[in-house]
Design brief:
The protein is α+β, with helices and mostly antiparallel strands. It is built from eleven helices and ten strands. The strands form two sheets. Strands 1, 4, 5, 6, 7, 8, 9 and 10 form an eight-stranded mixed β-sheet that branches. The protein has a two-stranded antiparallel sheet with strand order 2-3. The structure holds 3,4-dihydroxyphenylalanine.
Length: about 350
Amino acid sequence: MSDIKKIKDEYLDKLSGDLNIENVNKIKTELFGKNGTISNLFKKLGSMESSERKNFASDLNLAKEELQEKLNNKFQEIENKEINSKLKNEKVDVTLPERDINQGKIHPVSQVIDEISSIFSEIGFSVEEGPDVEKEYYNFTALNTPDNHPARDMHDTFYLDDNKELLLRTHTSPVQVRTMLKGKPPFKIIAPGRTYRSDSDQTHSPMFHQVEGLHIDKDINMGHLKGCLNYFIKSFFEVDKIKMRFRPSHFPFTEPSAEVDIGYELKNGKIVIGEGNKWLEILGCGMVHPNVLKNVNVNPDKYQGYAFGIGIDRLGMLKYGINDLRAFFETDYRWLNHFGFDPLDVPSNYRGLSR
Ligand code: DAH
C-alpha cells in the first residue's frame, strides 16, 4: 500500500472517532499545517522524476480532497451537536410575562440647557465652558469686584481653602474672563453651567445653573443687548409678543447695569408669559465694564459689548410649571418620570435635533 493511502486511511479512521473541536483542529494542523504530513508530501513533488510525479500528484490530490471533506464534515457535525444541545438546554418559555423596560428621561435642566444653546446658536453664539472649581481671581478680581464686596463673604461663597484662593464659582461670569484671555475679539459666546452659593430654600439651591452671555465687538450697544434678549425670551417661551422691562441695577462688571423683568399673568393658577401686568425678574445684564476689558487685554477704546447672566433653573420652572426648585436635584425617579423629557419627544421650538 502506498504511503499516501496509508496516511489517508489512518486519518480517515481517526476522524471517524468521537472528537471534540480541539481534537479536529489538531488533526487539521497535523495534515495541512506548515509542516503537516500532506503539506510535506506536496513539497516532495518538486524533486521527483516526471514519470513518477504524475501518479503521485494525482493520488496526493485525491487524498487531500477526501481528507479535507472529512474534516469539514467533522467540524459541521460538532457544530450541529453544540446547537442541538443548546436548543435542548436553553428553552425559551414564550409564556413568561415580558420584562419591564426602564427608559431614562432627560432631566428638565439638561433639556432647558439644550433649548437655550440651540436658540442662541441660531444668532451666532458659540458655547463655552469653564470649571466649577474656580480661582478667586477669575470669579471676582478680574470681574472688577472689590475686596469688600458682599458676594465675597464667607456666608455667600463656598471657599475651598483657608487663603480664599479657590472656590466653587458663584456665577458663570468667570467664563467671560477665561474666554477673552484665550482669544482675540470679537467674542460672541454663551456659557451654561453649574454655579454655587451658600443658600437653600424653596427658590434657592446651593447648587444651581446659570447661562452667561457675552458679545464684544467694535460697535455693540445696549440696543443689541435688548434685541438679543427679546429674541431669546420669545423663542424660549414660544410666544410672539413679550413685555420686557430693564431696571437700573448694579454689577461690578458692567456699566451701566440692568435687571430684566418679563411681564406675566396668572390664568387658572398658571403663569402665562407675555401678558398681564405682573413682573418677574429673570436676568442681570449690562455693558461690560472697561476695567474688565483691560483685565483681559482688550482695548476698551476699540471694543465694547454686553453681557448677561440668566438663571436656568428659574426659566425651566417657569416654562414647565415646576414650583419647587429643590425637587430638581432630589433625584426622585417619580419626579423625573413626570417632569423629565423623552429623548424623542421634543418641544416644537427645540432645534437641537434635525427633524
Ligand atoms: N453674574 C451675575 C449674578 O450671578 C449675573 C450677571 C449680571 C451676569 C450682569 C452678567 C451681567 O454677565 O452682565 O448675579
